[in-house]
Specification:
By secondary structure, this protein is an alpha/beta fold. It has eight helices and eight strands.
Length: 249
């Protein structure tokens, strides 16, 4: 790109040095209008192939700065790209209904619920990840990030598809808040020995293994709650797409 000789806002040649930008380039400020700019701006275009690869890397246990180093992109660009991906992730999480007759679905629909501890910014700022999973298809039906109160359990229940709220047998641990949310006739509070929540507990392990923000003792923890939620949602959407591809039509 052609180097600038004047301020891009007022056209004046009266400007001064103003420190450096995040990439280390010399920054300038116009003395008349106060506009901040660089004399040699660069507009790097990230090709589609590189963007696709970055989308896949965001699903693996790699820090954001690690992706920047490996792919040669800036952290600011990567954060904006993540925001775009998170906005495109659908609220229905790509959940696919099991391919059975309706009568069979009503009789055998089962869900498993569990919570996963996480934090944002510092360990004292706890945010629990509430997960609901279909016991048969292993799809994640809904999730919620919040505290560990009954209000968060109610929000997870509200996020479930209507067919599961109305018909499913729901398995949980003995955490008391579930009793005030799930209809007693369909709630099964069980111990770990019964192994009726082993699928959702195994998915919690998958989350910790695949999402760097959730690894215990990580330096890649979330600093922003919106990015924390968006990363989990983005991973769940891709996870459900993989699971739904194996379901019969």
């Amino acid at each position: 790109m052609t180097p600038r000789e004047t301020c891009p806002q007022c056209g004046s040649t009266w400007f001064k040095r103003n420190g450096h930008i995040h990439s280390g380039k010399q920054n300038h400020r116009g003395r008349r209008c106060g506009r901040v700019f660089v004399l040699n701006p660069e507009n790097h275009v990230i090709p589609e192939e590189q963007r696709t690869l970055i989308e896949r890397l965001l699903l693996e246990r790699i820090s954001l700065r690690g992706i920047c180093r490996a792919m040669g992109v800036g952290l600011r660009w990567l954060l904006q790209f993540m925001d775009e991906l998170f906005r495109r992730a659908p609220d229905h999480l790509h959940v696919k209904s099991p391919g059975r007759a309706p009568a069979v679905i009503l009789q055998r629909l089962e869900a498993e619920l569990d919570e996963l501890w996480s934090f944002v910014g510092k360990k004292a700022n706890r945010h629990w990840v509430w997960i609901a999973m279909d016991a048969t298809t292993r799809q994640v039906l809904a999730f919620h990030v919040g505290d560990r109160s009954q209000a968060s359990a109610e929000q997870l229940w509200a996020n479930l598809p209507a067919s599961y709220r109305e018909q499913a047998i729901v398995y949980t641990d003995h955490y008391a808040v579930y009793k005030g949310v799930i209809p007693p006739a369909r709630h099964r509070a069980i111990s770990k020995l019964v192994r009726k929540t082993n699928h959702v507990e195994r998915f919690n392990c998958t989350l910790r293994q695949r999402v760097s923000r959730l690894v215990r003792g990580t330096l890649s923890f979330s600093k922003n709650l919106a990015n924390h939620i968006g990363t989990i949602k983005y991973f769940i959407c891709e996870y459900n797409l993989t699971k739904s591809a194996a379901l019969p039509e």
